């Protein structure tokens, strides 16, 4: 079955230490401010492997992994396309 007929893609879902988040502002360099699904605002760090390949904009839905030693910071692990974010909303994973 192709993606066009089903309309549903198997998206990457968060593992036990990851959360859905929405980018609220770009702070320059490899830092963004994100609002996580647990209600906290965190400073997100875009890792080098994503920095130049994946463009991250305000309003994007991302997966973050909060730091163990500093809960107010997190690493950006994945960015969802607009279409994928819509599917997550439809399926009730994010609001």
UniProtKB/TrEMBL annotation:
<keyword id="KW-0648">Protein biosynthesis</keyword>
<dbReference type="InterPro" id="IPR001253">
    <property type="entry name" value="TIF_eIF-1A"/>
</dbReference>
<feature type="domain" description="S1-like">
    <location>
        <begin position="7"/>
        <end position="81"/>
    </location>
</feature>
<protein>
    <recommendedName>
        <fullName>Translation initiation factor 1A</fullName>
    </recommendedName>
</protein>
<dbReference type="InterPro" id="IPR006196">
    <property type="entry name" value="RNA-binding_domain_S1_IF1"/>
</dbReference>
<dbReference type="InterPro" id="IPR018104">
    <property type="entry name" value="TIF_eIF-1A_CS"/>
</dbReference>
<keyword id="KW-0396">Initiation factor</keyword>
<comment type="function">
    <text>Seems to be required for maximal rate of protein biosynthesis. Enhances ribosome dissociation into subunits and stabilizes the binding of the initiator Met-tRNA(I) to 40 S ribosomal subunits.</text>
</comment>
<dbReference type="InterPro" id="IPR012340">
    <property type="entry name" value="NA-bd_OB-fold"/>
</dbReference>
<dbReference type="GO" id="GO:0003743">
    <property type="term" value="F:translation initiation factor activity"/>
</dbReference>
<comment type="similarity">
    <text>Belongs to the eIF-1A family.</text>
</comment>
<dbReference type="Pfam" id="PF01176">
    <property type="entry name" value="eIF-1a"/>
</dbReference>
């Amino acid at each position: 079955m192709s993606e066009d007929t089903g309309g549903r893609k198997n998206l990457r879902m968060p593992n036990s230490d990851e959360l859905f988040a929405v980018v609220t502002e770009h702070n320059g360099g490899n830092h963004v401010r994100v609002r996580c699904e647990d209600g906290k605002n965190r400073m997100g760090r875009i890792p080098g492997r994503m920095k130049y390949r994946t463009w991250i904009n305000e309003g994007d839905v991302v997966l973050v992994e909060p730091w163990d030693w500093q809960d107010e910071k997190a690493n950006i692990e994945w960015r969802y396309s607009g279409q994928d974010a819509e599917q997550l909303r439809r399926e009730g994973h994010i609001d």
